[in-house]
Specification:
single chain, 280 residues, alpha+beta, Tachylectin-2, Chain A, 4-stranded antiparallel beta sheet, 4 helices, 12 strands, globular
Length: 280
């Protein structure tokens, strides 16, 4: 395996690098792959391509897709079907295209500050309301989430999806509850929903069960990551689950539950809930 010298000083001023060309004597304290020299193999491949002196549009070849799939298989142990890969012009372009496709001006987008300011800037371009999941830095360690989460840790939740009901101003946080059995094994056993007028403040008492082993027809123990998507006059709630009494993470199917809109907290207009399964 080739060895690379990460201690070699690079003159970033020669390329007008955005992080480095700020002022004399000021250096950025964040480090990324672009702050180092590119591996010689990449530089050589670029030089070979430039030497052709014809720069027309290019496309992905089977060899390119195979290289990606083989790398994921070798380093992550995952088999990715070829049809699951889609070529895009770049990460930031794709991120912005997805934001424009899935959000409208004024929608709320959760961003994890202060990491990757270009991602946060992309969300702001859509005139989105940025809901900041603030992080703090430790003098002698990595970035970490603030000590005061929006809900107590005792709630045992993860994998959240936020929905705003414009007709009445309520915010709804759809999230997984993490169950623990007698052996301290953990898995997500339900989808809960919290409601609040303020998306930065939530109360554990304002909570209801949306889907669990009692009303899910096909998965009785484990119900996974929810995503809330408005489709016409209904809210689609996508989730994954292994089915039956299983609690493992692999070979899951996708479930689809529908909630009629507009949403309101329980005790007002009761929501009619129906659930069906879509296998993939």
């Amino acid at each position: 395996m080739a060895r690379y010298n990460f201690d070699q000083i690079v003159d970033h001023g020669a390329i007008n690098a955005s992080k480095w060309n700020v002022a004399e004597g000021i250096i950025p304290m964040s480090i990324a792959d672009t702050d180092f020299l590119s591996p010689p193999e990449i530089s050589e491949a670029i030089r070979d391509r430039i030497a052709v002196e014809s720069y027309g549009y290019s496309r992905m070849t089977d060899a390119d897709y195979d290289a990606i799939r083989n790398w994921i298989g070798e380093h992550q142990g995952q088999h990715v079907p070829r049809e699951h890969l889609l070529a895009t012009p770049g990460v930031l372009y794709t991120m912005r295209a997805v934001l424009y496709a899935l959000t409208d001006p004024g929608d709320s987008v959760i961003v994890q500050t202060p990491l990757h300011t270009t991602s946060i800037r992309s969300a702001a371009l859509r005139d989105s309301v940025l809901i900041k999941n603030e992080m703090k830095s430790l003098p002698d360690g990595p970035w970490t989430v603030l000590d005061a989460p929006v809900l107590p840790l005792e709630e045992q939740i993860e994998n959240s999806s936020l929905y705003h009901e414009e007709s009445n101003g309520w915010w709804f946080l759809f999230t997984n509850h993490v169950g623990i059995d007698g052996t301290w094994d953990e898995w997500t056993d339900a989808i809960w929903v919290y409601w609040s007028r303020d998306p930065t403040r939530w109360k554990p008492a304002n909570r209801a069960v949306v889907l669990d082993g009692h009303n899910c027809a096909w998965s009785k123990q484990c119900i996974g990551m929810p995503s809330a998507i408005k489709v016409g006059e209904r809210l689609a709630l996508l989730y994954d689950a292994p089915g039956g009494e299983r609690t493992d993470h692999m070979e899951r199917d996708i479930g689809l539950a529908w909630l009629d809109l507009p949403l309101s907290p329980p005790g007002g207009d009761q929501q009619r809930f129906k659930e069906r399964n879509t296998n993939t």
